[in-house]
Each structure stands twice: as C-alpha cells, then as structure tokens.
Write a structure and sequence with these properties.
Blueprint: H1 3-16, H2 80-91, H3 98-107, H4 111-123, H5 129-140, H6 144-154, H7 157-173, H8 177-190, H9 196-213, H10 215-224, H11 230-238, H12 247-255, H13 260-277, H14 279-288, H15 294-307, H16 309-318, H17 325-336, H18 339-342, H19 344-354, H20 360-370, H21 375-382, H22 388-405, H23 412-419, H24 423-436
C-alpha cells in the first residue's frame, strides 16, 4: 500500500470513527441544487475490489490501514463519473470491506477530481457521510479554505464536523499544521459559544497528527497556545505516550521543559494517556522519576485501581510517607474507596496482609462496603472506630444504606444499642446522610 493511500485510509478513520460528539451548527445557507447524475445502476461492491488470495475473513475494523493491499480499490482508468457510480455501490453495500475500499479509492483521486465527485455523492439518497467527508478532505489538500466553505454551505452538521476535521488534517499532510491551527483559532473566535465545543475537540486531533510528524514543533504549539486551548492540545500530544514507539521521546521532551507549569501539565497528561494502556508501567515510571505530585498520582491510581486494585493499593501505600498520617489516610482511602464497594472481603484480606485491619479510617470504609451485603459485619467494623463522634458520622451513611435496602426491618434503636451511641445522635446522622447521598 503506498503512503498516500495509507495516510488517507487512516485520515478517514480518524475523522469518521467519532473523535468527538455531535455538534449543531445552526441554520446553514440553502443547499444549491445538485446536478442530475447519469449512468446505469450502481456497481456491486465487488466491482471495486481486486481479487484477493484465499484466507480467513478480514477483521471488522475502522482502522483502514488493516485492509490488505490486495483488497484496496484501484481506479483502473475510470473517470470521475464511473468512480462515483462505483463508490455509491460500495458505500451502500453491507459487504465486508466495501466501505474501506471505497474510501481508499477516494485517495487515488486528485484534489480537483475529489471536488468534482462531491455533487454526485451529495445527490445520492442517503448521501454517504464517510465518502463525503473523505472527498472534502482530499479536495482540501489543494484548496482547504474553498473545501471548508463548500462543506459548510452544503453538509449537515454531523457530516460537516467530519469533513472539517478531514480538511484540518489535510493541512498537516501539506506540511502546514500551523495554518490549520490559525484557521481553527479564527473559527473559534467567530463561532457562537454554544458551537465551540466540537471546534475545541479538533485541536486535539490536529495536535496528535502534528506531533506524529514533528513532535518538537507540536509541543511548542501546545505551550504557546492561547489560554483555554491548551487542554485539548495537550490531550492530542499526549497520545504519543499511548504508543510504545513514541512514548519515550514524548516523555523526555516534556521532562526537559523549563516552565514548571507546562512540565507538570505535560507529565500529568502523558502519564494519564499511558495509564489508560498500562497503568502499572505508568506508576512504575513515576517511581523511577521520583515524581510525587499528588494530582498526577491520583490520576494514575484511578486507572490502576480498575486494572489491579490490590497492586494499586500497594503502590499508593508504598509511596506515601509513614510519618504523614493525614496523607497516609488519604492514600488509604484512595486505595480502597471503590475496591471495597465491589470486593469488601478482598479488601479485608489485603488490610490484614498490610497490618492495617485496625486502621479506623479503613474500618469506616469497610463498614460501608458491607452495609447492603452483611449489616451485622458492617456494625462490627463500625465498632472498631473508638471515637464516638467519628463512629456516629461513619454510621450515618452506613445505616442509611442499610435502611434503603430493607426499610421494613430497619431498627435504628437496635443499631444504636449495638453501636453504643445515643439514639438521637444516630438519628440525626442518618438524616444528614439521606440529604448527602
């Protein structure tokens, strides 16, 4: 597969596979009447495909780079009208591999031919959204402003969103990512506030594409971005950390930044992207770099806890100083907070293994974990909290959950006796919890 085809397959995947949510652009100018299309019935999808060697079924994937070269559609001398007929037959087919083949065929058109193809695509019913966006993106390689203007005047909001992203990314292919950034900034300034969200998402897609070609320039653009635009640009740059082939370079560049604010933001965002893929490795890297920033730590811990709650709990406790009781209590709460709701017995075992089964803050969380599963066990854990005021506060939420699970048999007076707490204090704590939970 040649590099041009590969790029446009990936570009189509990026802008069509949903890099953002829907966006309403409001009322657009009336759509000009498209020219009538001529020709016979649409060709079947198989007409676009070259014979492929016998093998198992191709994977269903939106990453069009996975389509084998033998399956990629070739133009084979067809004019734009014939290409339109073949495209419409393919994108409306349910045949496996038909849409990737159609979008690959658009990559073989010149930008001018892609522009000529658009009226025929627009006239079909229903118009093929993916092909329209890809054709606009191909045209934009030569005339980005004209392509975007046509898309804005002729396409509905959802298709225009994808076409706009394809056109923005075409600037990167032309080697002009800064021009795409400037265009987006101008559009953002002119757009009504309610319409800015999806434009802001495009900064992330642009920065990721830019960073793949020139990470140093992309990082400079992120740092120099106007206030309010850096979040999505950082997110785009951070996707380099999700790929083991580019992770080391991206992290080294961020670590070398002199500006402490930018350095901290960069580390947080890159490690966050990495932890989505391999939270244990991201956590280990923070230890190697002796990075103790609490916000970065909590960000990784949230992902680590989903993948390996016991490993995450060990990591958090091991990197928290024993001579800081407040910070250690916070780390313990973070370590078991969600885990205890799903697996209170596993948390009990982990606490015993760490010698923490007598920790009063952990006792309150374990009581909450057992509340709806085993109220009696929840009470046992509450009674490990020695201070009456703290036991009352913890019992309020636990007993409210027990009450919600079994209103008919709930006996607050009985629980007051088991917990050795005044009934009126416990009643007030449960009522307070009912307003909070």
């Amino acid at each position: 597969m040649n590099s041009k085809t590969t790029f446009w397959c990936l570009l189509s995947a990026g802008c069509i596979a949903g890099l953002g949510l829907g966006w309403s652009l409001g009322k657009r100018p009336p759509r000009p009447a498209p020219p009538s299309s001529e020709g016979g019935p649409a060709a079947p999808a198989s007409a676009l495909l070259k014979p492929a060697p016998e093998r198992g079924p191709a994977p269903v994937s939106r990453d069009y780079s996975e389509v084998a070269e033998a399956e990629i559609a070739l133009r084979d001398g067809r004019d734009v009208g014939e290409v339109a007929t073949a495209l419409l037959g393919s994108v409306q087919s349910t045949e496996l591999g038909a849409e990737p083949a159609a979008l690959a065929l658009i990559a073989e058109l010149t930008p001018e031919e892609a522009r000529e193809l658009l009226p025929a695509l627009l006239a079909s019913s229903p118009p093929p959204a993916a092909a329209l966006a890809a054709a606009v993106g191909r045209w934009a390689e030569a005339e980005p402003e004209a392509a975007l203007a046509w898309a804005g005047a002729n396409l509905g909001s959802t298709v225009f969103r994808d076409a706009r992203r394809a056109a923005v990314l075409s600037w990167v292919r032309r080697g002009e990512p800064a021009a795409a950034r400037d265009w987006l900034l101008a559009e953002l300034e002119a757009a009504p506030k309610a319409q800015r969200y999806m434009l802001e998402q495009d900064f992330g897609a642009l920065t990721f594409a830019w960073a793949q070609r020139d990470p140093a320039a992309a990082l400079g653009a992120v740092i120099d971005a106007p206030d309010g635009r850096t979040h999505n640009m950082w997110y785009g740059f951070a996707q380099l950390a999700a790929d083991e082939n580019t992770r080391g370079t991206a992290l080294s560049m961020v670590l070398a930044l002199d500006d402490e604010t930018a350095r901290s933001k960069g580390i947080s965002t890159l490690v966050g992207a990495w932890s989505e893929i391999d939270p244990a490795a991201a956590a280990g890297w923070l230890d190697e770099q002796a990075i103790t920033d609490q916000s970065i730590q909590w960000s990784v811990a949230q992902r680590y806890a989903n993948a390996d709650p016991a490993g995450n709990a060990d990591w958090l406790l091991d990197r928290t100083p024993e001579d800081d009781p407040a910070l250690r209590a916070r780390a313990l709460s973070m370590a078991i907070g969600y885990w205890v709701r799903a697996e209170p017995a596993a948390v009990e075992e982990w606490l015993r293994g760490r010698g923490l089964d007598g920790d009063e803050s952990a006792a309150g969380q374990l009581a909450a974990g057992w509340a709806t599963r085993d109220p009696g066990r929840a009470v046992l854990w509450l009674n490990r909290i020695g201070d009456d005021a703290r036991r009352t506060a913890a019992a309020g939420g636990v007993l409210f959950e027990i009450q919600q699970g079994d209103r008919e048999n709930f006996d607050l007076e009985g629980y007051a006796g088991q917990l050795k707490l005044p009934l009126e204090d416990l009643d007030a704590a449960v009522k307070q919890a009912s307003m909070r939970l």
